[in-house]
Write a structure and sequence with these properties.
Enzyme class: lyase
Organism: Streptosporangium vulgare
Radius of gyration: 25 Å
Shape: globular
Number of helices: 25
Domain Thiamine pyrophosphate enzyme central: 191-327
Strand content: 15-25%
Protein name: Glyoxylate carboligase
EC number: 4.1.1.47
Number of strands: 19
Amino acid sequence: MKRIPCMEAVVAVLESEGVDTVFGIPGAAILPLYAALQHSDIRNVTVRHEEGGTHAADGWARVTGNVGVCIGTSGPAGTNMITGLYTALADSIPMICVTGQAARDKLHQEAFQAVDIVEIAKPVTKWAVQLKEPAQAPWVFREAFRIARSGRPGPVLIDLPIDVQRGTCLYDAEIDTPFPVEVPRPRPPAIRAAIDMLMGARRPLILAGGGVVIADAAAELRALAEHLQVPVQVTLMGKGAFPEDHPLFAGMAGIQTQTRWGNAALLESDLVLAVGARFGDRHTGDLDTYRQGRRFIHVDIEPTQIGKVFEPDLGVVGHARPTLAALAKEAGGRTEARRPGKWPARVAELRGTLLRRDDFDDVPIKPPRVFRELNDFYGPDTTFVTAIGLYQIWSGQFQKTYLPRRYLVCGQAGPLGWEVPAAMGVKCAFPDRQVVAVAGDYSFQFLMEEIAVAAQYHIPFVIVMINNEYLGLIRQAEIPYDMNYAVDLHYGEGGVDHVKLMEAFGCPARRVELPGEIGDALAWASAESDRRRLPVLVEVMVEREANAAMGPSLDAIKEFEPLPEQELALAIDWSD
């Protein structure tokens, strides 16, 4: 083997693992790695804030299914990455953050920008490690990629002391390959038991979580649902796992991001097959209401997820794709493909009668109208990126998604500012895909400096800002306290002019105040973004007092009258 600089070995590992873009900021303690990167085919995108770099790597990872990479120097670079690491851990996103570090013999002397980032990062990573010897470099990075991808995916942090980076190691890229990643398969008895329960139920639902998207198991999910004619719901993280224009689509249940008919369908069900879902509190609400009257099968790749929120009637450990395939095979061996029955027809009835309005012509603009325009203008291959707040709730309630990895949302951690850098990561991964970031006015300001990055590197995408001039979700949450405190952003009194801000970055922007102008503005923004290869902003001014339907439980917001029990019993005969 040839002896080479150990950072050159690291770069060779990155290339062989399928990394074509990294996001980060160079600094003194990470320059040996950057020196090796400059001679590779990997594109470096220099961000303006390390948190922005983590979110960009996160977006790249979500849309590709590969491991995103963010790089920073020592000290505050690592601490700035913690929010991004937490976001990736919470949403099961494979990512590697690399930090520079002071020399090993200076770590105990409070050297400049020396911080124990490994200990800081441990609670928000699957593995946090400091490289101790140059000879370990390629193998630690290989293991980092394996861990990030394995089981429930997640982030890893690797800390690189500067003296270790300057070392050499024996390495031959010709004989080194990525470590294999185990794909856990379910046990046959568990599959048989699950199909027994599915075929014995009268009103079953399949609940597709983010694990179905991560596992690239949409085709297997659809095959199972269509064979047994079982309606399919999605969680917020699972949007895109099942096409929303499919006859078996059963909406979304939850206390915030939900459809009225999705809540109704879940409350009428008697069995839920949940695949790759965590039963997060914003989905379940009050557990007594959520669980009452129905049994649950919980499929997850991570054994400790099963029973964490509540004990299911059956737990199945396995990767979503082979598990769904095994379920479909077992079902196919027992019965011919079923005809649509009265239970799917009942779900279709709910879908047709419990829709929320989105056709408002009011001025100021009502937020649902914005999402109607987005649904009408953009095609199914468009990738939407959104973060947290009232606009995320409206997005979950109104926005339609048809394909996997086309709806990206920081679901569990919910960091403000996520949209712009994440959209940048998506566009770097798929330059020819239309990318739209849906943001709130307050969230946009968290990491708006990353607009400069997109402008510098000519990374084009459209930003649709839902501007209500409030901390809207907090204002709504304050209503029970009979207060309206510290939430008004005072944009009309010398606050940020987002159009001028974008223009200062050299990027086009337009403000919309009439509902009839939204469609034209989207067309203009898409054309300008493509023509000038820049991010473009459409700022939509919506009514300040707009709220989103939400409550403490599914029962509190179901907004429908269930069928009488005798009629319900008649409506669920699969044989009809």
